Backbone:
């Protein structure tokens, strides 16, 4: 074993059961095969196309082939069973059983879209994710947001959202005890998938609990790798911007704005808001913001983002409003 480093074992090329060399390596390596999304006929994966649908029956018709294709694929996997050892066969049977449960949950999520609140939350989630995606591409390339091809889901992304809809909408649902793990290499689309589910959750809560009950903390995202925090914060903030712009045009989403916060300890973000006239403002967001506004060359910004997540404009001292409470 290696302490704070990787241990690499090199099998004998003539007998893979024999290992003659073991060494340590500062950076572990592993070949991860590229995974490409398959095309599934008759399934609507366009975010904006889904957002534009006016009735749930059409949406369900355009999503149901996803379940059919998945079930057909599961049946085809059983053809491999005769070639497997008894141990591997047992594992394969368990995997297929789990996959069959996932298929049923996806189908259940599609059924749920007949509920008016779920249907509206799902279409709005598609709309805001597409807008956020266009804004991201615009910042990366300098081109107008409308100049890009319509954003589309990868099959696993929309499947992940659908299989979690019942658990999100029904507190008594059994699958709330299941933790669904998205395992893909970097750039595979994990973040967009869970942000899509987050958007649905936020909107659905507003629609089913009008007023202040629809506000408050709805989602907690925990980052286990510090390097990912700012990237994930920026992308989540871009989604919140899209949701807030949508809320300003749709009075069914309530009067309370969509908001996002970050807590990573006082070394990076203030733990208390503070406010004008309060006795102890030391180390608060209010004090740090005032210092930044008074002398931005000497003091750094109290927020971790350097640019507006929506338009990409670099934050200056005049960009931020003082915290009053």
Residues:
């Amino acid at each position: 074993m290696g302490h704070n480093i990787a241990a690499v074992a090199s099998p004998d090329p003539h007998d893979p059961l024999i290992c003659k060399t073991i060494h340590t390596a500062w950076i572990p390596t592993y070949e991860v095969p590229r995974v490409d999304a398959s095309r599934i006929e008759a399934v609507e994966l366009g975010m904006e196309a889904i957002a534009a649908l006016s009735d749930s029956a059409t949406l369900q018709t355009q999503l149901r082939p996803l379940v059919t294709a998945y079930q057909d694929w599961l049946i085809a996997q059983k053809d491999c069973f005769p070639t497997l050892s008894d141990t591997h066969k047992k594992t394969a049977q368990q995997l297929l059983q789990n996959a069959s449960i996932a298929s049923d949950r996806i189908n259940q999520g599609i059924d749920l879209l007949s509920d008016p609140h779920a249907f509206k939350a799902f279409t709005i989630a598609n709309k805001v994710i597409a807008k956020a995606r266009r804004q991201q591409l615009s910042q990366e390339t300098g081109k107008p947001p409308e100049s890009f091809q319509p954003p589309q889901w990868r099959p696993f992304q929309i499947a992940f959202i659908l299989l979690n809809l019942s658990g999100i909408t029904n507190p008594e649902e059994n699958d709330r005890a299941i933790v669904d793990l998205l395992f893909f290499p970097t750039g595979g689309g994990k973040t967009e998938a869970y942000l899509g589910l987050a958007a649905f959750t936020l909107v659905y809560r507003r629609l089913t609990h009008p007023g202040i009950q629809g506000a408050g903390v709805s989602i907690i995202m925990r980052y286990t790798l510090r390097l990912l925090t700012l990237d994930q914060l920026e992308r989540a903030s871009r989604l919140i911007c899209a949701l807030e712009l949508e809320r300003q045009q749709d009075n069914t989403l309530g009067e309370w704005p969509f908001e996002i916060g970050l807590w990573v300890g006082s070394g990076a973000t203030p733990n208390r808001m503070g406010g004008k006239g309060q006795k102890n403002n030391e180390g608060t967001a209010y004090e740090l913001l005032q210092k930044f506004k008074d002398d931005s060359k000497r003091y750094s910004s109290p927020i971790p983002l350097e640019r507006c997540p929506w338009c990409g404009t670099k934050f200056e001292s005049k960009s931020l409003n003082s915290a009053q409470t």
Observations:
- The chain has a mean pLDDT of 90.
- The first strand starts at residue 6 and ends at 12.
- The radius of gyration is 24 Å.
- The longest helix spans residues 86-112.
